[in-house]
Design brief:
The chain has two domains: about 1-160 and about 340-354, 3-Layer(aba) Sandwich (Rossmann fold); about 175-335, Rossmann fold, CATH 3.40.50. Helix content is about 40%, strand content about 15%. The chain has 13 helices and 13 strands. The chain has helices at about 10-25, 65-75, 85-95, 105-110, 115-130, 135-145, 190-200, 220-230, 245-250, 265-275, 285-290, 305-335, 340-354, and strands at about 1-5, 25-30, 40-45, 80, 100, 130-135, 155, 175-180, 210-215, 235-240, 255-260, 280, 300. The strands form two sheets. It has a seven-stranded parallel beta sheet, with helices on both faces. Strand 9 (about 210-215), helix 8 (about 220-230) and strand 10 form a beta-alpha-beta unit. Helix 3 crosses helix 5 (about 115-130). It is globular, with a radius of gyration of 21 Å.
Amino acid sequence: MRICLFADGESIHTQRWCQHFFNKGHDVHLITFKNVEIANVNVHFIEGVNIDVAGGNWQVILKFKKVKKIIKEIKPQVLHSLYATSYGFVGALSGFHPYIVTPLGTDILISPDQSFIYRSILKYVFRKADIVTSMAPHLKLALLKLGTKKEKIVDILFGINTSIFNKNNRVLSDKEFVISSTRNFEPVYNIPHFLKSIAQVKSQIPNLKVNMIGFGSLHDDLVNLSKDLKIDDIVVFHGKVHQSKVVEVLNQSHVFVTVSLSDGNSMSLIEAMACGAYPVVTDILANKQWITEGLNGYFVKINDVDGLSQALISIYENFNTIIDNALKENDRIVTEKGTWDANMAKMEEIYLSL
């Protein structure tokens, strides 16, 4: 089957998707506004568009004729856009069918509230799509709120590769207490909240070490903030790293923290659960399908720096008591619904049915 993805070529989600379906024997093409190379994938780069995660990417509309031409040349059996506004909108304008759209979170949780134009665009996209996939219950509710027909929506979680993300090499130091974040350095992930909390607990958690894995537009600001908060001696900025390094860091972490303002379905959280780090997460709908308070993780409110600090201190003081039950529950949850191969098998069935 010839599959054409229309998505951000720099996204790890896009790259994983492409490689997975190539490995399944399909002819995979990717149309993208990012100049990338992906092994075994036919990448069609469209230049002249700089996608901004903050939005306002109106210039993509000017490229829809070019996209339509490339699709005609590829002659795919299915077209699939990952992200509903920029890529999803242009994909809908192409008029190609069968057409699948996968919202990723911000595009349907935040963008519709920003303007009538965004809401109108999204309604158009979902009206044109043959199938719309949802990664989480709260995303399905958002889709229904935008008028998407219920029969078009299919639940497809992304999941993780448990042959990579697992506890096989987990080793915790008895000389350091390690807290890690693997969220990118963009406003939606609210990293300053996390760093301010670290400044509060630094003196109360002996031998504290903090790992920051990620990249993004706020990198320099966050590095400077860590210096201003006088925590730069315990915070390590690793930058963008290979998956193997992410696993290594998580396997050495006592706690994983994500204080995102919004999420579709956090792969970072599932990866941390699989690697054995105790999750501390914001009290948002995306996290509630994975975490039960006090059983396998801890909820904190958005922008509640004091609350996060109290949670981290409590976990530090009671870590040996709470970690065993958390490990068992997180293993169960990841196995039941967080596995990449099982969820992509369902996606492949949809492609073939279309």
